[in-house]
Amino acid sequence: DTASKSKVAAALANVETSLESLDGLIQQPCHVIVDYESDEPSVDRAMHFRATARAFTASGRQALLDGDSEKALNRFLDAIRFGYATRRRGLLVDGLVGMGSAAEGAYRLYEHRAGFSVPQCIRSSQEILELSDAGEDYAAFRERDRHWVRTAMGWHGRLTQALGDLSDASLLFTDSQYEQMFLQERALMRLLAVELALAAYHDEHGRWPESLNQLVPRCLATVPLDPFDAQQAQLRYKLMEDRYVAYSIAANRIDEGGAEPSESPLFGASMQGDLSLPALLGDESLESETAGN
Fold first, then answer.
1. Rounded to 5 degrees, what angle do the CA atoms 202, 132, 126 make?
2. Tens digits of residue pLDDT in 84-116
3. How far is residue 148 from each of residues 84, 141, 161, measured CA to CA in Å?
4. How far apart are the first and last CA of the chain?
5. What is the dihedral sign for C-alpha 90, 96, 97, 100?
6. Fewer C-beta neighbours within 10 Å, C or N terminus of the chain?
7. What Å distances lie between residue 182 and 76, 77, 86, 135, 285, CA to CA?
8. E strand or H helix at 244
9. DSSP letters along 117-128, please?
10. Contact 277/197 with Cβ under 8 angstroms?
């Protein structure tokens, strides 16, 4: 059954003090402490982190219902901040859970972007780019994971690692698929920053820009680069009669004009289509908000 608004508000009241404390902590320098002697990664801790990210976004949604857009914005950003803070210098499991936590905040921030003011959109766009640019890539997590396996699991771990190297595979995905996940998250965050900047521009001008360069310098310091583009080109933008699409060219490195992906972005460089923010967030229904505005 769906909980009533009053029950949700009462439940959130019980955790608001903890969320306030975390809000201050995650904006300070912090990192994961890896126990290289333990042969069990902290999966329980990772699951608690996902629950915390959901609590941040639930608090933000309640703030919107209460008419407090500033608190809502900060709570959605808190989920993103939390996702980066709880993976820094951690193992791969920390990185993957951190990406999931950050995506919780990204989804809600994008979903409710029309409810934020121009300064709020510009400020949050800038912070999201700073968090993304400071984030570690897959290679850093892979190296720590390999060190943890060799140290904590002894000869069995080294043997498993050697066999995995021969097949380019771990227990779940190949190295190339993990690398693609991290690149997709970087694209997601950069596209989110662009979408917030676009919302700010539209609020001020009553129309969408002809190109992303028109967002500079008022709404963006620079147009973010596409992490999938080997030539370091900017993220793409296509303005149509009744809508627009901002997108990354994705793993196949082919610009297909913002076409929707033919399959889940997670699997394979053979996927046709490009990566818009709704596609990366797994909810194409979000695209409809851009039409006709």
1. 35
2. 999 999 999 899 999 999 999 999 999 999 999
3. 21, 10, 11
4. 35
5. positive
6. N
7. 21, 19, 15, 10, 24
8. strand 244-248
9. -HHHHHHHHHHH
10. no
Looking at the chain, how many residues does it have?
293
Report pLDDT for 293. 46
Return the closest-CA partner of residue 31 out of 183, 141, 175: 141
Distance separating alpha carbons of residues 70 and 59, to the nearest angstrom: 12
Rounded CA separation 163/157 (Å): 10
Residues 6+ away with beta carbon under 8 Å from 269:
176, 180, 251, 252, 253
Phi first, then psi: give them for residue 236, nearest 5 degrees.
-90, 160
**Which pLDDT does position 162 carry in this prediction?**
57
Q: What is the DSSP string of 72-111?
A: HHHHHHHHHHHHHHTTTT--HHHHHHHHHHHHHHHHHHHH
pLDDT value at residue 54: 94
- Yes or no: say if 251 and 228 are a contact pair by the CB < 8 Å rule: yes
What are the residue ranges in the chain where pLDDT is below 50?
A: 288-293
Tell me: the pLDDT tens digits for 167-211? 555 556 788 889 999 999 999 999 999 999 999 999 999 999 999
The sign of the CA dihedral 277, 281, 286, 288 is: positive
C-alpha torsion angle, residues 68, 193, 270, 238 (rounded to 10)? 110
| Alpha-carbon span 135 to 259, nearest angstrom | 28
